[in-house]
Design brief:
Strand order of the largest sheet: 1-2
Structural class: alpha+beta
Distance between the termini: 27 Å
Shape: globular
Strand content: 15-25%
Radius of gyration: 12 Å
Length: 72
Amino acid sequence: LIIPSYLAKGLEFDHAIVILAGQGEYIAQEERGLFHTVCSRALHRLTLISLEGAPDILAGVAANLFEQNSGR
C-alpha cells in the first residue's frame, strides 16, 4: 500500500518506508511534525531511503539505535 504522508495519521503498519528523506528536508516545524507522524506509523520496522544520507532531523539520534547502509 502506497499512500502520501499526509494521509498516514491514524494508520499503523508493520513496516513503513519513507522515501526522499534527504539532508534539506524537514526543516520547517510543520514538516518536522509530518516527519514524526510518518515515522511513528511503523510498528516493527522503519526504513528511510535517501540519496543524500540521513536527514538533519536525525542528528540527535544515538548511533546505536539505527543502521545506515549505503547500498553500494
